[in-house]
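Fold it.
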Amino acid sequence: MPSLTTLADEARIALDTVADRTTGLWSPSVRLGVTGLSRAGKTVFISALVHNLVHGGRLPLFESQSSGRIAKAYLEHQPDDAVPRFQYEDHIADLVDRRIWPSSTRAISELRLTIEYESASAWGRMFSRGKISLDIVDYPGEWLLDLPLLGKDFGAFSREAVELSELPGREDIARPWRDLAAGVDPDADADEMLARKLFESFAGYLQACKGENRALSTLPPGRFLMPGDLEGSPALTFAPLAKLSDRRSRPGSMQAMMERRYEAYKTHVVKPFFREHIARLDRQIVLVDAMQAINAGEPAVKDLERALTEILACFRPGRGSLLTGLVSRRIDRILIAATKADHIHHESHDRLQAIVRRLAERAIARADFSGAAVDVVAMAAVRATREGKVTRGRQALPVIIGTPLAGESIGDEVFDGETETAVFPGDLPESPAALFRKDAPSPSGDPTIRFVRFRPPRLERTAEGVTLSLPHIRLDRALQFLLGDKLA
């Protein structure tokens, strides 16, 4: 993102990189960024990844594990003391003991997993310590949507916010904010109470966009949805204006106050997030819940495409040389994972993968051009269902069998969260383009396509009473792409 950073920013990033590389000479590590929009499954992915490696889970496509070259994997203290620890143990207790999904990511967190292994080559065994640390950085995808703001002034931000609010799927829920903003004179004296009302109205509109029946994704500023410890601060109490002054804003005016707070948000919130976390990543996985958008219909699908394009544009993809790598990090592998593949029959997995590739195709082309390796996979970090067939007359329908979450419904049937059920989820379209048409299927338009959410599975135990590792779909393929070369 060279156009979004200043020379001073780049100098600080270079100093941070040199410090990281110096430490890495004695303790090799890989920083893996895990992101995705709300409910995409970031917490579940990290928990399942660690659980399967620590407990020797079945990972046939992860070569170093399946060949027996991994001696052990274990958690260690993370290197960044100022970053909250990812609460792995609590999340595993939710998944395994209580069979509930862990709470969503609300802020940045980190976890260090150290892997001891034997290199596959004699040369590698001679020069490698056979030990590498995986520093997993978990952060909300909504915060990534703030990074493009670094290249926009308040006027551009306001105009884009108004344009987005007029799109189908948004126009009705944005009306209260637009009506309030339309009555604001940008040249009038700054009014703290009015600024607060504008912020609350705009933030309420963004929250409504996130609702399950809308499932919209492009919702900057991200901290308006997940404020963390900034809640109530002036840097978070601003909003776009529907009317902007044609001349330079008058000091002390409403527009001047909003501009100042918008710039403070970029300086004190967005830039540190990019410099301290995004610019330090080596590998990245982006988790995508495409089925939630498909449930909500064509406006949500198009909005997810817009959000993915902006998110992937925030990374620094490419392959660094030995020399440039000392002062600048590049993300050389990006995996885009369509999550919750266990919510559909395996016959539709290729279609789900094709849909996500279509959603991210512009960003993938950019990363490919930079030299980074990019892959797309349909996966489930924790498999909550199994497959079966139900016979109706002479027709055998492929179904998935699991325990739907309490309150989930198909037609008039509402599930209680305790009863295991066979569900025919419907077929994804053969062509991803079908989802971008205005007549694309949705629960209101075509009830044959409906994806319900399931409880985590009940884990089996061995005869000795040992709980087996969490089941998955293609977690091993994801691990091979993200880490396989580092353990060769």
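The chain has 15 helices and twelve strands.
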